[in-house]
Amino acid sequence: MNLKDLYIDFFVSKGHKLIPSAPVVPENDPSVLFNTAGMQPLIPYLMGQPHPYGTRLVDYQKCIRTNDLDSIGDKTHHTFFEMLGNWSLGDYFKEESISYSFEFLTKVLNIPVNKLAVTVFKGDEEIPKDIESATIWQNLGINKIAYLGKDDNFWIAGESGPCGPDTEIFYFRSDDEVPDTFDPNDDRWVEIWNNVFMQYYKDNNGITDLPKKNVDTGMGLERVTAILEGVNDNYLSSVWIDVIKKIEEISNLKYAGNEKSMRIIADHIRTSVFILGDDAMIKPSNTDQGYILRRLIRRAIRHARNLNITNENWEIILANMIIDKYKKYYSELEKNKNIILEELTKEKNKFNKTLEKGLKEFEKIINNTDEILNKDLAFKLYDTYGFPIELTVELAKERNILVDVDGFKEKFKAHQELSRTSSSGKFKGGLAGDSEKEIKYHTATHLLNAALKIVVDKNVHQKGSNITAERMRFDFSCDHKLTDEEKLKIEELVNKWISEKIDVTVKEMSKEEAIKSGAECMFIDKYPDMVTVYSIGDISKELCGGPHVKNTSELGVFKIIKEEASSAGIRRIKAILE
């Protein structure tokens, strides 16, 4: 049995309910392009909203982080990874959480106690030292304990909201004799698990105790698997080794000596499969998630060329392996298999057409460059040959040449900013919650969805949304550009419902009952058996995590500011509330 199954089975035996992994593309979270942590989709419940599955939860979450893309190619970094997590929402706290972690590591995974060490919060002028956690660890037989400050062992998302100390668990990843004392700065000690205890609330008035305390934990599957299997290169663990061997076979080269390119190909194709397989239907493009996807695919292609891979279908071979490997856990990969394979091949063929010419142009440019490649030439490589600026920088770095990236940004600022949005790995406001305006926009998307079904077609369905305090963006299935008359009718209908001062009600019910009642939702498979349904009179009924206003009269005036194509068969509306 693999680590994922062992983890889930253990926590289910402790009364936790398995919840589905959220999509890699977050719903109604404008601050990141991808879900970057296991707790991110659970923010409303950590804020106090009751979860349909109860107070003890466990899952494996698909995560994507691109903030350290330059590190991909080393032994430990990945853009896509799986986070194992368990949560207590006002149920158990430090004693049970730490005991569960200890039992799983030592009894289920059979890790020797002397190879474990922990860090706990040392306290400061606002928050006392976390003696409670340290005492629990000592009673369990862990004596290698280090006390660290807020930068290491205190957690808060954003400027305010629930927060608290955490305790991080470390494993001695070395064949050396285990030291008697624990030095967190010793690289042989590797963090494998983090338990966050949300017991305080921080705002402008300071820090107060929370009446309802939560536990949020996270364990990286790839890292821990490598540790358990005794390899110091994640790509030699069972998570990756079959893909690496296939790349060896396709390239007719050995992994040793070609590690960087093989790791990048394996990592980037896996991440691309998960982005393309997401029900948000992201396609390679020059904006948002599509830009990240295009960048990953093209970087994999360039490294395939480095290995002289000439097999016409190499990306299909690897993608099929990854789909087969993960479809047991993520059924959307099998469901969207044809889309994944078609888009990978389409992007590969598109890039290959210009890559040869682009590399020749790059050689010509670089041979006439002394120290810095200027912004105009960098932009030419992008605009004419499809080279993302990051690829130009990577190629130039191999020749010890700098690139005027700031100058390039001036020429193509929008693209560069979008590429970095998802790289921040932080969620704006985090657990501080949605602003009042964002909550209004959440509700307005429901009215817009209902209006589209009446004005455009009853078979229109939501395909994604993005909300900020300034505007809402709503993607929907539609085979034509909306006419001015259609847009006007949609606006009038939404504003009519707002003026009618309709109550917004919420009810918990089984998923089966919700579907029978006519409730609509995007990504039905990701919802648990018990769901939250929001209704706006007889106009709209949708499965949704919320939050929403109490009455439509709170929304103001709805106005469409733009309607455009998002991708094939998908249209996009941008609207504001005045």
In short:
The chain is an alpha+beta fold and 578 residues long. The protein has helices at residues 3-13, 43-46, 94-108, 131-140, 150-153, 221-228, 241-251, 259-277, 288-306, 314-326, 332-335, 337-367, 375-385, 389-397, 405-411, 413-421, 436-455, 484-499, 511-516; strands spanning 17-18, 56-64, 80-89, 116-121, 145-148, 154-156, 161-172, 189-203, 206-220, 372-373, 402-403, 462-467, 472-477, 504-510, 530-536, 540-543, 558-567, 570-577.
Secondary structure elements and pairings:
Blueprint: H1 3-13, E1 17-18, H2 43-46, E2 56-64, E3 80-89, H3 94-108, E4 116-121, H4 131-140, E5 145-148, H5 150-153, E6 154-156, E7 161-172, E8 189-203, E9 206-220, H6 221-228, H7 241-251, H8 259-277, H9 288-306, H10 314-326, H11 332-335, H12 337-367, E10 372-373, H13 375-385, H14 389-397, E11 402-403, H15 405-411, H16 413-421, H17 436-455, E12 462-467, E13 472-477, H18 484-499, E14 504-510, H19 511-516, E15 530-536, E16 540-543, E17 558-567, E18 570-577
Parallel strand pairs: 1-2, 4-5, 10-11
Antiparallel strand pairs: 2-3, 3-9, 4-7, 6-7, 7-8, 8-9, 12-13, 13-18, 14-15, 15-16, 17-18
Helix pairs in contact: 3-4, 7-8, 7-10, 8-9, 8-10, 8-12, 9-12, 9-16, 10-12, 12-13, 13-15, 15-16, 17-18
